Automatic annotation (TrEMBL), chain A:
Chief location category: endoplasmic reticulum
Residues passing through the membrane, by range: 179-200, 212-230, 264-283, 295-316
Bilayer disposition of the protein: Multi-pass membrane protein
Chain's role: Subunit of the oligosaccharyl transferase (OST) complex that catalyzes the initial transfer of a defined glycan (Glc(3)Man(9)GlcNAc(2) in eukaryotes) from the lipid carrier dolichol-pyrophosphate to an asparagine residue within an Asn-X-Ser/Thr consensus motif in nascent polypeptide chains, the first step in protein N-glycosylation. N-glycosylation occurs cotranslationally and the complex associates with the Sec61 complex at the channel-forming translocon complex that mediates protein translocation across the endoplasmic reticulum (ER). All subunits are required for a maximal enzyme activity.
GO MF assignments: transferase activity
Gene3D superfamilies for this protein: Glutaredoxin
InterPro entries noted in UniProt: OligosaccharylTrfase_OST3/OST6, Thioredoxin-like_sf
UniProt entry keywords in alphabetical sequence: Endoplasmic reticulum, Membrane, Signal, Transferase, Transmembrane, Transmembrane helix
SUPFAM superfamilies: Thioredoxin-like
Any single Gene Ontology cellular-component annotation: oligosaccharyltransferase complex
Protein name stated in the entry: Related to OST3-oligosaccharyltransferase gamma subunit
TrEMBL record, chain B:
Lineage: superkingdom: Eukaryota
One example GO MF annotation: transferase activity
Family statement: Belongs to the OST1 family.
Transmembrane segments: 466-489
Organism: Phialocephala subalpina
Cell location: Endoplasmic reticulum membrane
Name used for this protein in its record: Dolichyl-diphosphooligosaccharide--protein glycosyltransferase subunit 1
Membrane-protein topology: Single-pass type I membrane protein
Pathway per the UniProt entry: Protein modification; protein glycosylation
InterPro entries assigned: Ribophorin_I
Function statement: Subunit of the oligosaccharyl transferase (OST) complex that catalyzes the initial transfer of a defined glycan (Glc(3)Man(9)GlcNAc(2) in eukaryotes) from the lipid carrier dolichol-pyrophosphate to an asparagine residue within an Asn-X-Ser/Thr consensus motif in nascent polypeptide chains, the first step in protein N-glycosylation. N-glycosylation occurs cotranslationally and the complex associates with the Sec61 complex at the channel-forming translocon complex that mediates protein translocation across the endoplasmic reticulum (ER). All subunits are required for a maximal enzyme activity.
Pfam families documented for this protein: Ribophorin_I
Automatic annotation (TrEMBL), chain C:
Protein name stated in the entry: Dolichyl-diphosphooligosaccharide--protein glycosyltransferase subunit STT3
Superkingdom, natural source: Eukaryota
Pathway(s) where this gene product acts: Protein modification; protein glycosylation
Biased composition (Basic residues): 740-758
Family affiliation: Belongs to the STT3 family.
Organism: Phialocephala subalpina
Function, as annotated: Catalytic subunit of the oligosaccharyl transferase (OST) complex that catalyzes the initial transfer of a defined glycan (Glc(3)Man(9)GlcNAc(2) in eukaryotes) from the lipid carrier dolichol-pyrophosphate to an asparagine residue within an Asn-X-Ser/Thr consensus motif in nascent polypeptide chains, the first step in protein N-glycosylation. N-glycosylation occurs cotranslationally and the complex associates with the Sec61 complex at the channel-forming translocon complex that mediates protein translocation across the endoplasmic reticulum (ER).
GO cellular component, one term: oligosaccharyltransferase complex
Length: 329, 494, 758
């Protein structure tokens, strides 16, 4: 920080000169700095100098709010990608032929800028194109990249910038190879293989156990048929509060649902089919008439009540549904 | 010339249906009588008095000429000629002549004659039933109508503007004979006639036309030589659609088993009114629907069907059109159809309507033998106040399978007739079909009837059941035989 | 009828009743077929015999082409009336099975001189085949269980299950109409072949597989399910000559058959979807070889050596496949198929697929809506399959899991789930009925018999032990039966009630949800009578009659097939969304300012533009509601000319009223939808009944297009693209010229952008 302050002080005369002298050296300044550490960490003053016209170079600034108290999830997701873009670009073009400077302005250091730009949201990515010089563009207003669909990958940002700076080199994005991950994967793989090979005699009966497989397949079927994939794809909330403080377990409307809701439904399905199974298989194997009678009544009752409840739940989801069973009507 | 005359005379002496068929089928336009190139109608008549009435109340001009003719030759004459331009000849339709003195003596035999295709003048020849003695007089009532002879002017009007039609004719009725006295009356649909030709006053006559409400009168004029013309052009308001059916295919299917007769009319309908000057505007249209002003658009078509018609349908190429009403009761059976969209000038709307009826109302069995008489309306198109004109009508009468010795008679002028077979619904030989073609017909002919007589032997009725029965039995036997075969690859184990 | 099925069983015991039973079964099956067909005729009875929503209109058109021009012309049919100006090699890019089927039926009937309209064949094809499907399900289920009532129940379920009816009502003339029958029947043949290990049945299976390939893209499901089944069997150590023979026959012949379809061509050996089948084929060869050798060589370690060898070769082969895929020799997964696994894929990369409503994931009410009680009988049935886990039961289990996953990911795949649900539900229900619907009860256990029973149980302890790891726990005790009539009657009556509710449910769903042609809309008059809103056909008929024979119509792709089928006019894009860029072009034209759209329309020779607008009637499926998809798809190609962001207000709302964004208000789609709309209402009262908002006082102005036709209820609005003016200047000056006439210059309208042609 102190270093920055000092740097700003040392730069101020430059900025003053820059008014009349063409700002080639200004670009050089920032570029050399960028080579050491890019994207440049800016604050209001540096931001001002960097983006002040006249400019014969272009600037890409990411206005972001990384500190956790702002709770800007997107900012934190996007930051590494942004660093990656700027690093690989600057590395790809050491001589600064593309005349492009990357900068990052965090809200904590750039409150005035945020206010002056009237920004409510972060992150915002601005691209200032040169105001004069060979590649000067007509409108001085910076281009704004809007983050519509989540944090974009570095390539997308690179493409966007490259599109708007048609001439000059566009160094490609180089993703560093993630050695850690590879190693981790391989070790785990080997580990499992060895474990299996060792524990095979014990695993075998478990694998060959019919009940296990039955359980697995039933559970997966119940999951899928109770709309679990919908939750997975649509990222639905687990539960939502109804207006007056309480919790509403069932989402209104035919084509949306809550996480808990699907679990309830799955449970109902499970219970119903379990009752059916026991009626079909277990009960006729009960040798004692009395117990059998009771079991029949119990399981039959369970099916009846559950089915009736299921119907009533479905009536919640689908308004005009006419059918129902007692007791839940 | 003479020979032809005698031939024709012999023909005309022949009796009823058969002859009617011939004389009908040899009527205008297709099979014309070619006369020597140097033909000139002999000046054997003179028109003593002639009244030419042009009726423009409908969407086509309907003309009628009442003329008193007198034989000026020394011998009895029976051929009277009327000239037309070749362009008129193309579109003229429903040419009929009868005796004014006794209208129910039936129609005279007329035919279009042509001596030179290049010539602009063609003739219709009227053959008087009895040759007219010298100095004798006779009163002819000649009526005909032109199709698509009316031109909208201006050609494009707005959605709510009123439309004006232009009609051109001759104040002097075209004739090949000297005319002593004549006048031409024009009946307009309304009194709004902004433009019309004025025939200046000549010696003896006052200036034409004299107006009486919506009726204009040119003449009367004095003696005029043969072929005298005085072109007159009138432009009058006609804010109604000009409905033109370029082709009508009409099927009439008779089923003895079902005791049912099925009608189906397939219309190719156009509106020849003035086109829209701007694009169609729905807001304007919707707003004017509350009070419906006269418009050049076809909103609705009314089919007054025979009482007792049932199960009507109204479809077009992409399926049923839901906007149709059918009112049926003891007295009437009205089918009121509304096209999918209002049909403005220059727009087209092909569609089909059909309905069923009880066969007993149309079919009679003859006392003797197994002959039947079928009596159906020749044309049952929409009945509109502004009139409908049909350029080409093809009527198919589909009789039951095995019907034979088919004969027919109608007073509608036909251009061609053919007998054929129509195979459907598991027919073996196919159903006897009679196809009649007429052109340039207007909706005045709506109530003309068509009488078809045919023989239908009892055995023919039982052909189809027998055929089907045998076929099914055959299939069963084949199945049984095949089922019996052993197509296994294994050796003779069993 | 289901109950009667099992009643007959309990009634006619003994060989004497066999014929009676056969006869009964036949009648029941035909009754089921009749029920299946008649329950699909709601729309025909309510409206008319008409082709339903969108895709069927193309199939209908193609069928008419086939019937008119004959088979060979159809096979190499280049259609220049779609995708103008590109055209489409229709013959090579469709699944001809459906058209050929109905064409064959048509010609057969014509040979009998029965004057049937091809339209009626197309309309009634799906119900007809649903009857066959019921029968196929019956056969399939009979292979699964010994109880004959199961088959009949399954057939009944299949006949009326809404999950299948949804795609097979009269008039929905789509590939699924025949595909589901083929699916089930192919599976039946496969099971048959597997059980008998006969090349004959395997060949039959391959034959019907070929038919299936020619009929529906969903054949990939079979192509992967059967190999999976075999793979599972091999893993369970159930390899046998039967498996070998049946699979190899099926694979060899089936692949050849499938390659005869131009659209499929060499995919079976080039694309990843088919690689599993190939891999399993190779694996079978290996295993077969090993088994053969082991049979010859008794030595133990040699066998293990061979097993190792097999594993190695398999691994190598698998690696090779992966390598080929990566190197691109084998096409990677196609987008639609891939999006089944990576569920987030479509939304990002192929918005067109994501935009189709039937590609959305399935919420649980949809399952219950389509399957009612079957959905909870389904797991029970699958569990029963574990009782005696024979090869065919394994198939049921595999099918069940796979299909339920797919149907969870994509709504339309509910179709593939329905058969197996019906089958396993029938299995469960039939075992219930067989248990509780028997006349004779077991005798009350007296003390002696009691301890006898105990004895038996004691003796069966060992069996229990044995069963522990093999059998199901619920089967450990010996079967006794139901004692009291009361429990029997109670259970059976409850089941009957459920079945009745099921039937009611199916009828209700079918009549309410699945029987609307969506070309014709029905509404109720105040007096309760039905009023038919026929705007679509009104406008299409107007186009067909009053525009030149090949006037190019631009509309959003949903209506392409209908315009082709009903209006018979060339279209720019249609529901066969094979060319994203072209669709994006239309999307751009719709979502851009007039000055941008006009050049695009000129370049594509557009004569008329058709938009669907429900604002007056409250018809929610209109273009303004689909607009965002047009924007997204266009943005995918021209990211910085069309931005979805610009169509949302700063507060992130999608508005059409006064508060709509400038971009929205200036977009061609918005203008065409609301042009002159205010004139219907007293000034300032204009109301959009779909969005439920009041429209701005002053409606939009149009310069480059003019209103040509608007249907009675304003659902369809057709605009004519103005021509260049007679001096023949370029469109820029022409449009500004048009503005000059209108005495109003809006500053931002100036300086038309030049079109970027990709």
């Amino acid at each position: 920080m102190h270093f920055l302050k000092g740097l700003v002080v040392s730069l101020l005369p430059f900025a003053a000169l820059a008014a009349k002298k063409p700002a080639a050296d200004k670009f050089q300044q920032f570029h050399t700095k960028a080579l050491s550490s890019t994207p440049l960490k800016l604050d209001d003053t540096i931001y001002g100098q960097l983006t002040s016209a006249p400019r014969d170079y272009s600037v890409a600034v990411l206005l972001t709010a990384l500190e956790s108290r702002f709770g800007c999830q997107l900012c934190r997701e996007f930051q590494p990608e942004w660093d990656l873009v700027s690093k690989s670009w600057t590395k790809g073009d050491k001589k600064g032929e593309s005349r492009l400077i990357y900068g990052t302005l965090d809200f904590s250091e750039g409150k005035m800028t945020f206010q002056s730009l009237g920004l409510q949201t972060a992150p915002v990515l601005l691209l200032f194109r040169p105001t004069h010089g060979p590649h000067a563009s007509a409108d001085t207003a910076p281009l704004r990249y809007d983050f519509t669909s989540g944090a974009p990958p570095a390539e997308q940002i690179h493409g966007w910038i490259a599109r708007h700076l048609p001439d000059g080199p566009h160094p490609e994005v180089h993703r560093p190879i993630n050695w850690m991950r590879i190693i981790a994967v391989t070790t785990t793989l080997l580990g499992t293989v060895t474990f299996i090979s060792v524990a095979w005699p014990y695993l075998l009966p478990i694998i060959q156990n019919r009940n296990l497989w039955a359980a697995i397949s039933l559970i997966s079927i119940l999951l899928f048929t109770s709309g679990h994939m919908f939750n997975h794809i649509r990222k639905v909330p687990y539960v939502a509060g109804d207006g007056k403080g309480g919790v509403s377990y069932f989402a209104g409307g035919f084509s949306n649902q809550f996480g808990l809701e699907t679990q309830i439904v799955a449970a109902m399905y499970g219970l119903l089919s379990f009752a059916t199974i026991s009626l079909a298989l277990k009960v006729p194997r009960i040798s004692d008439p009395k117990t059998q009678q009771v079991a029949v009544l119990i399981w039959g009752g369970v099916i009846f009540v559950m089915y009736s409840f299921l119907l009533s739940v479905f009536r919640i989801k689908n308004g005009g549904y006419p059918f129902w069973l007692p007791p839940f009507s | 010339m003479r020979l032809l005359a005698t031939v024709a005379a012999v023909l005309s002496l022949g009796s009823t249906a058969l002859c009617a068929e011939k004389s009908n089928s040899t009527k205008p336009l297709t099979s014309r009588q070619i006369l020597p190139a140097n033909f000139k109608p002999p000046q054997t008549f003179k028109n003593v008095n002639l009244v030419h009435i042009i009726n423009l109340e409908k969407s086509y001009p309907k003309e009628s000429i009442n003329v008193v003719i007198e034989n000026t030759a020394s011998t009895a004459q029976d051929e009277y000629f009327i000239p037309f331009t070749s362009s008129q000849m193309e579109t003229i339709g429903g040419f009929e002549v009868k005796d004014r003195k006794d209208p129910d003596s039936g129609l005279f035999e007329v035919e279009a004659v042509e001596f030179d295709t290049e010539s602009d003048t063609q003739f219709y020849r009227i053959r008087l039933p009895t040759p007219l003695a010298p100095k004798a007089q006779q009163t002819l009532g000649i009526s005909f109508s032109y199709l698509s002879a009316l031109e909208p002017l201006p050609k494009h009007v707005g959605q709510q503007e009123s439309q004006y039609l232009v009609y051109t004719f001759s104040a002097y009725c075209p004739s090949t004979y000297v005319t002593l006295k004549q006048k031409t009356e024009v009946k307009f649909p309304s009194t709004n006639v902004p433009e019309y030709t004025i025939v200046p006053a000549t010696a003896g006559e006052s200036e034409s036309p004299q107006k009486a409400g919506s009726k204009f009168t040119y003449g009367s004029f004095g003696e005029l030589p043969a072929g005298a013309v005085e072109p007159v052009k009138v432009r009058y308001e006609f804010t109604k659609p000009v409905i033109h059916v370029s082709r009508l295919e009409r099927d009439i299917e008779v089923s003895h088993w079902g005791g049912n007769i099925a009608f189906e009319d397939r219309f190719t309908l156009h509106n020849h009114a003035a086109n829209l000057s701007k694009q169609f505007n729905r807001v304007e249209w919707a707003s004017q629907q509350y009070y419906n002003p006269p418009s050049t658009a076809i909103k609705e078509l009314k089919f007054p069907l025979r009482v007792g018609s049932t199960e009507p349908y109204f479809t077009d190429v992409i399926g049923n059109v839901s906007t149709s009403r059918f009112r049926s009761n003891k007295r009437e059976a009205n089918l009121e159809i509304k096209p999918r969209y209002p049909i403005f000038g220059g727009w087209n709307y092909p569609f089909r309507v059909g309905w069923n009826a009880d066969l007993k109302k149309f079919l009679r069995k003859l006392k003797t033998g197994n002959g039947y008489v079928l009596n159906v309306p020749f044309l049952e198109g929409p009945k509109q106040p502004e009139g409908v004109s049909y350029e080409h009508i093809e009527l198919r009468v589909i009789l039951p399978e095995g019907a034979e010795n088919v004969q027919y008679s109608t007073t509608v002028p036909l251009v061609s007739v053919e007998h054929s077979l129509h195979r459907t619904f598991m027919d073996t030989t196919g159903r006897t079909t009679l196809t009649l073609t007429a052109i340039n017909i207007v909706d005045d002919f709506r109530d003309r009837e068509l009488i078809v007589t045919y023989d239908y032997p009892l055995l023919a009725g039982f052909r189809k059941p027998l055929v089907i029965f045998t076929a099914v039995v055959g299939v069963f036997c084949a199945a049984w035989a095949i089922g019996g075969l052993d197509i296994g690859i294994h050796g003779k184990k069993k | 009828m289901a109950d009667s099925g099992s009643i007959t069983e309990s009634f006619f015991k003994g060989s004497s009743g066999r014929n009676t039973r056969g006869l009964l079964r036949l009648t029941i099956l035909s009754l089921i077929a009749a029920a299946a067909i008649s329950s699909r005729l709601f729309s025909v009875i309510r409206f008319e015999s008409i082709i339903h929503e969108f895709d069927p209109w193309f199939n209908f058109r193609a069928t008419k082409y086939l019937v008119q021009h004959g088979f060979y012309d159809f096979w190499d049919w280049f259609d220049d009336r779609t995708w103008h100006p590109l055209g489409r090699v229709t013959g090579g890019t469709l699944y001809p099975g459906l058209m050929v089927t109905s064409g064959a039926i048509y010609h057969a009937l014509r040979a009998l001189t029965i004057p049937v309209d091809i339209r009626n064949i197309c309309v009634l094809l799906a119900p007809g085949f649903s009857g066959l499907t019921a029968y196929a399900t019956y056969l399939f289920t009979n292979e699964m269980s010994t109880s004959p009532s199961a088959g009949l129940l399954a057939a009944a379920f299949m006949g009326i299950a809404p999950g299948y009816i949804s795609r097979s009502v009269a008039g929905s003339y789509d590939n699924e109409a025949i595909a589901i029958f083929l699916l089930v029947f192919t599976f039946f043949l496969w099971i048959k072949a597997l059980k008998l290990g006969s090349a004959f049945w395997g060949a039959l299976c391959a034959l019907f597989y070929g038919y299936m390939v020619s009929a529906w893209g969903g054949y990939v499901f079979i192509t992967n399910l059967i190999p999976l089944h075999v793979f599972v069997l091999v893993c369970m150590g159930r390899f046998s000559p039967r498996v070998y023979v049946s699979y190899c026959t099926w694979y060899a012949l089936g692949t050849l058959a499938s390659m005869q379809i131009p659209f499929v061509g060499f995919l079976p050996i080039r694309s990843s979807e088919h690689m599993s089948a190939l891999g399993v084929f190779g694996l079978l060869q290996l295993v077969g070889f090993v088994e053969f050798v082991r049979a010859g060589v008794p030595s133990k370690q040699f066998a293990t050596l061979l097993r190792g060898f097999v594993l190695v070769v398999f691994a190598i082969a698998f690696g090779g496949l992966v390598l080929l895929t990566v190197s691109g020799v084998i096409a990677p997964w196609t987008g639609r198929f891939y999006s089944l696994w990576d569920t987030g894929y479509a939304k990002i990369h192929i918005p067109i697929i994501a935009s189709v409503s039937e590609h959305q994931p399935t919420a649980w009410p949809a399952f219950f809506f389509d399957l009612n009680m079957l959905i909870w009988l389904f797991p029970a049935g699958v569990y029963l399959c574990f009782q005696k886990l024979a090869d065919e039961q394994v198939f049921v289990v595999v099918y069940a899991i796979l299909a339920s996953y797919f149907s969870g990911v994509m709504v339309r795949l509910m179709l593939t789930l329905t058969p197996i649900v019906c089958v396993s539900a029938a299995l469960a229900l039939s075992s219930l009925l067989d248990t509780y619907l028997t006349i004779k009860s077991p005798t009350e256990p007296t003390d002696s018999s009691a301890d006898a029973v105990n004895g038996t149980t004691a003796s069966s302890k060992k069996a229990e032990k044995a069963a522990k790891q093999d059998g199901l726990r619920s089967l450990s005790k010996p079967l006794v039966g139901i004692y009291t009539t009361f429990s029997k009657t109670s259970v059976v009556s409850a089941l009957t009630a459920y079945l009745l509710i099921f039937v009611l449910h199916c009828t209700w769903v079918t009549s309410n949800a699945y029987s609307s042609p969506s070309v014709v809309l029905a509404s109720r008059m105040p007096d309760g009578s039905q009023h038919i809103i026929d705007d679509y056909r009104e406008a299409y008929q107007w186009l067909r009659q009053n525009t030149p024979e090949n006037a190019k119509i631009m509309s959003w792709w949903d209506y392409g097939y209908q315009i082709g089928g009903m209006a018979d006019r060339p279209t720019l894009v249609d529901n066969n969304t094979w060319n994203n860029t072209h669709i994006a072009t239309v999307g751009k034209a719709m979502s851009s300012r007039e000055e941008v759209s006009y050049p695009i329309m000129r370049q594509h020779e557009v004569d008329y533009v058709l938009v669907v607008f429900g604002g007056l009637l409250g018809y929610s499926g209109d273009d303004i509601n689909k607009f965002l998809w047009m924007v997204r798809i266009a943005e995918g190609i021209w990211p910085d000319e069309v931005k979805e962001r610009d169509f949302f207000t700063d507060r992130g709302e999608y508005r059409v009223d006064e508060g709509a964004t400038e971009t929205m208000k200036n977009s061609l789609m918005y203008k065409m939808s609301y042009y002159n709309y205010g004139a219907l209402f007293p000034p300032g009262q204009a109301q959009d009944r779909v969005r439920g908002v009041r429209m701005p006082e002053k409606g939009p102005e149009l310069n480059t297009v003019e209103e040509a036709f608007t249907s009675e209820n304003w659902i369809i609005r057709i605009y004519k693209v103005k021509d260049l003016d007679n001096v023949g200047r370029d469109h820029a000056s022409a449009s500004s010229f048009a503005k000059g006439n209108k005495k109003k210059k809006t500053t931002k309208r100036r300086g038309p952008k030049v079109l970027r042609v990709e």
